[in-house]
Structure of Non-specific serine/threonine protein kinase:
Amino acid sequence: MGVGDSQDTFFLIDFGIAQKYHDPSSRIHIPMQENLSLVSTPAFALLNSHCGLQLGHQDDIESLAYSLIFLHHGSLPWLAGDGKIPLPSATFHHKQTFLAVASALSIPIVLTTILDHACGLAFMQKPDYSYLCTILENAANSKMKSKIIEGTSCQW
């Protein structure tokens, strides 16, 4: 659900670009590829997509963090105040800058922790879902001010 002026808006996550990380028959991880086209809209596109890299597990976690930040703030830091989306190259630069200073902004610590975890993963490395669930559940249990995480329950 949205916040502020968007409190009556219900947001959905689009899995239209979802893909499998493993070959269904061999269960072998997909290979890293380069020089790929940008996937998604620039505002929500992942850093690896901006760089033309194959998306992996870590990108799902980065995407989750962007979505939660959007729900928390009603926008993303790299979007212009008029709602216009800057060019992909400018968006990429803004995202890189944001990631470098996210912990100093008014982003809940749980979201910056999720981003840090995602950015620290190698392409074939599986995220630590237990860790991510624990930090979300701990944040919810400690009744942080962020309404995004209240009542969060992970069952992966």
Remarks:
- The radius of gyration is 16 Å.
- The first helix runs from residue 47 to 50.
- Confidence is low (pLDDT under 50) at residues 144-156.
